[in-house]
Specification:
This protein is mostly helical. Helix content is 70%, strand content 0%. The protein contains five helices and no strands. Helix 1 (3-18) packs parallel to helix 5 (88-104).
Length: 105
Amino acid sequence: MQPDDRLTVTVGRLVGQVGHWTPSRWAASGASGVPRADTVHDLVQWLADRCADAEGRDRRPVPRLDNDLALPDQLRVVAADLTRFGGPALVDEAAEKVRAVRGQL
């Protein structure tokens, strides 16, 4: 499997796991003791930072929206950007990061 396919599949699995969550489920703590929404937002920020680096632009904070139900969409968008602009090693690293976060939830 190509790294970009691996990231797409891994993000799809995470979105499938969390896409139906209610606000209270997002607010609950994951295995790390951090609220699940914070963990996923941190992942989105991590991916966005790597994408910015790959594109040669400044890192910017990913907005934390009022509704945590938007997190899966933010994740998909940022992962798609990274797949487009990141090299194979970076995309493979990102897939591992997504897999690890999925295990924390």
